[in-house]
Amino acid sequence: MTEAREPAGPHARRLPGTPCWVSLMVHGLEATEEFYGELFGWEFRPGPQQLGPYVRALLDGREVAGVGRLPTDRRLPVAWTPYLASDDADRTADTVRLCGGTVAVGPLDAAEAGRMAIAADPSGAVFGIWEGVAHPGTALTGVPGTPVWNELLTFETESVRKFYKSVFPYEEEPVVSAGDDCLTLRLDGRPVAGLHGVGHGLPPDRGPHWRTYFEVADLDATLRRVAELGGRVLAPAYDGPHGRVATVADPEGAEFSVIQGPR
User: Fold this and answer.
1) Could you tell me the pTM of the whole model?
2) What residues does the VOC domain cover (predicted)?
3) What is the pLDDT of residues 36-86, one digit of tens each?
């Protein structure tokens, strides 16, 4: 978690490795639009259809996230996936493979928006690669309803940090906390993502995975609304160094965290 929130203009260049987009794949696209529309105030418009039906979520007319429909013939997890910026998606995908990761989809063109791939690190955590052209990524940050942070939950950080630092030009900053296995990834001295080793605390049915945090104005009201809309509160709210945080799931089970910054 970090207090650094750099507003991203619609044409801003993202340094390679910067989390620049988040996307969710679900079975019921319309029901998911209704849930997040009510929860975050998002509106939706069609996006690239290379992988099937897909919409972009907008807040105040600016794109903040994507939601797509899972193929009916494939058993894939319903989960939020962060996309990491790349200057060359094909070269980044090759580096992922060389460093022990896998590439499941692409690289392929997403219409005029850019070029993308879906990959996994050596522990199996899935992330996207995005080479933005007409669509650099999230166009609004730092306000309620926008993604504010991404954190990898994994067994231990030592092995995966080498992978991510080999694929992207990350610097690392250990988080000083007794008993915690945490690292902050930085680009140009700015914190952009976190790695958190939780050992056997990983859910056996999930394994290592990335988690996206969304900013909210009122955490308690958000948790009540999640329940009213058919979602679940998975972990109660707690006070962290950057605000109050809770972990929830939408009606299809996609997990994410919500954070209310300090007042």
Assistant:
1) 0.92
2) 18-132, 146-261
3) 999 999 999 998 887 789 999 999 999 999 999 998 776 778 999 999 999
